[in-house]
Amino acid sequence: MARKNQTLGEFIIENQSEFKYSSGELSRLINAIRLAAKVVNHQVNKAGLVDILGEAGDTNIQGEDQQKLDVIANEAFIKTLKNREIVCGIGSEENDDFITVEGHNDDHKNKYVILMDPLDGSSNIDVNVSVGTIFSIYRRVTPSGSPVTIEDFLQPGRNQVAAGYIIYGTSTMLVYTTGHGVNGFTLNPAIGTFYLSHPNMKFPEEGSIYSVNEGNYTHFPQGVKNYIKYCQEESGNRPYTSRYIGSLVSDIHRNMIKGGIYMYPKSSLNAKGKLRLLYECNPMAFITEQAGGKASDGYTSILDLQPKELHERVPFFCGSKKMVEKAEDFMAKSL
Ligand SMILES: O=P(O)(O)OC[C@H]1O[C@](O)(COP(=O)(O)O)[C@@H](O)[C@@H]1O
Ligand SMILES: [Mg+2]
Ligand SMILES: [Mg+2]
Question: Which of 53, 74, 143, 237 could form a disulfide with 94 if both were Cys (CB 3.0 to 4.6 A apart)?
Fold first, then answer.
């Protein structure tokens, strides 16, 4: 039972029994994420003071110039997870291939794989706008005791056992679900403890915020153009507002609290959109559905898509249920 101001540590222990396979392993994994989040938060907060702004000098498999904080966050999460030997594999936006993690006696006994976007919203790092970390957790499908394979990562989002994000913003929050609702915890920086500040988060069914990079408008499919026009002109008696931070985590977090829709459609610039299915869309879709919202590629629920590659991209429509349904209507009508 969620109690306001409960610490994250208490919440994890008190809710462990809710979890079908509860053996404490998932709790230890969430605890490790909590620790890595604090390490990254410390770096993000002092980014301007020490030489960790700007580019790291390498390009990742996405063809993006890695920011120094992309690399720092990636290393912090990988090190924390490896040292605690609680996952058997890690997939990351910043690593070309998945990482196999041996257990204590090189026995590959661990049950979980994690996929992550260690630093989301990289284009906002240098300009002091909120950024995040996104994670998605699955039980492996290959037999324990053998090294993980790509199969363990290419699972439909519906198989996720947990997912969440950390937002490094005006305050630092960790928001996650294990399939029993969504809860948000705020870090008290003075004592380094996360407290339950947002119990049982819910997406309003309807909202008035639309979040899309309108700079790409001319390249969008007709259905998306029609929906944006609807938001701008014909939204009946409620004025819509355009809000776009350019950090997926921050745009969806705001929309979950206020009601809204986030869209990163396909376009003539990006045939499959920009966002990555496994460590951006699936975890945010799981959280959104657990909070009563909806997430699709414009036609199919994100969580029902069968992944084919570690870094594949998909179009993404996510947010308040009625708003996503409206956007899907416009997409269907423009076919
Ligand atoms: O600048 P654009 O094309 O609008 O893209 C912004 C989107 O790209 C992202 O920055 C991609 O994530 P990364 O920063 O992790 O690569 C999202 O957070 C954001 O919503
Ligand atoms: Mg990202
Ligand atoms: Mg990233």
Answer: 74
